[in-house]
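Sat 14:20. Reprocessing the chain from the morning session after the first attempt stalled halfway. Input below, unchanged.
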Amino acid sequence: MNAHLYPCLLVLLLTASPGTRGRAQDTIARQNFEPVAQPVLTYTTETAPYGSGGIPTWNVVDRIRGIEDAADGTRFWAARDVENTISGAPRSAITFDAGNICSLTSARFVFAYRVVGYDGGDDFGYVLHLDGFPEPEVILIDGRNGGGISTDGWVYDTVAIPGTAQTAALSLFFDQNGDDVAAIDDVQLLATGNQGSCRPICGIRLGEPVVSCESFTPDADELQLRIPYSGGESGVSVTSSTGIIGGDDPASQADGTITLGRLPEGEVHVLRVKGGDCDLTLQLAYPADWCTPSDLVINEVLADPGEDINGDGVINGADEFVEIYNRGTVDHDLGGHTVHEGSNSGARFTFPAGTVLAPNATFLVLAGGGSLNPDCAHGIASGFLGLNNDSPETVTLRDPDGKVIAQFSVEDAPAGESLVLSPDGNLDGGYQLHTAVAGTPSSACVETARLPVVLQSFTATSLHDAVRLDWRTTQETDNEVFVVERSKSGRSFREIGRVPAGNGRYFFVDYAPFPGQNIYRLRQLDTDGQETVFGPRLVRLDSGTVRVYPNPTSGKLFLSGEIEPDAVASVHRPDGRRVLSFRGGAVNVRALPAGVYYLRIRRASSSESFRFIKE
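Finished this time. Tokens:
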């Protein structure tokens, strides 16, 4: 370049218009609390205005102690002693509603604020609302103990509005008590233009479901799903082709979890989130043997360590562990099995080929390595275990085919100690605080009391005027007798019979049950006087209020009586295999081969079985 041209180029740079450095911002709406401001940015307050500058004041003023001039014009909004008997609350807010802003490009709120003497306990900040949902709160001024905080005159702040939002509002809040003063003025909605797209955008994103097995039986088990979602959308509703919906409502709460329960495995279920700008469909399909019976159980889980488990000299997340226990009578090959936690981020641990777990033995999966006892059968997770210690968590053990064979779920893990089965392997007793059963925070690789009887199954079936209890065991050591106990409410149990130790298959019929609800449990007694409790199991007797007809039938089978809308009914062969599942008062069994079948009705707290003949 010719050196004589440099001065000209410099002049051009210095005299260039400021608009060439970025797109100009247009004022779409404004609120400066003057009598005339066009177009006007409207505002509302939960507490009606009061005061004119003295103590207290929540109103438009032209001056107040320490603030003599407005940021724009002659008037501004002042807050002085907002915690008073008029407001009735320690905090007051003023909200500016921009309405529908989807056509705007690079939209933002801009406002001026001023604070005089804010001390300990005084706060000023804002909350941005997008599509009716609040974003995280932002504190701009946090009062300080021992000395007040004041701004150097009026300060302007900017709050950007994401381009995906359809509507926006800004709430400015004042949490203040006493003779301290704050003010806001010149609140504006700015944008670079109004050629943006108003194409509807759903504000909800569905995450990967976390699946839990309600039971592990050869029959059709039911599943419980937790479906995380991000965002929210006003006006949506959540529906499902089957199951019971619960959890959070994305129409009123952003970022939460939808739960879906009582889903039979082996069927296709459809979850739909529709309304507002959303029409989302999630197809849920799990094989009939998704939940597979096994002698392996998750025996102990430590999610929030309070002691150095792995021996590396520090207490941290590396001390988390999951303990697997074999409650069967034969060796179990663990090769290819995987341990997962609820984040759906893949296997945390894969058992090496040739890993064998003997009966009554444990294997510890640790989050991180250290100097653990070499005699302890253990493995180190891939990276970390990532167990939640302050929110719901699910730990899953899968076989090499991906089937779920054991599972552990907790809403909020205890601090500093594990949850454990007691005695080891006793799923019917449920997970308990380790300090409550052993007096110590955990027992990684330490043998505790072994279960004298391993219960394979325990069911209670209504016979309309009686209840039949069936249970099976896979292992018995020094077993003397099973005591059958019954309760109406579950608070206190009374003995109703005894069944001596036998060959592992047992039943008991209660010929005088309570009308309605009955709760049963087994109290197993050892020859040395020790005991273990199994159960409880709940069953309802509705005095014949449900009837199945015609019986025999060659086509449709009808149900009449007290059947809840959410009751799930299924048809089973005599060997227990499910062949049909339905809701409502009728099912067509024409396609079934002739023979004897059982119709089972499953409710939230009970189940009933009916025998019928297909001609």
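The longest strand covers residues 181-191.
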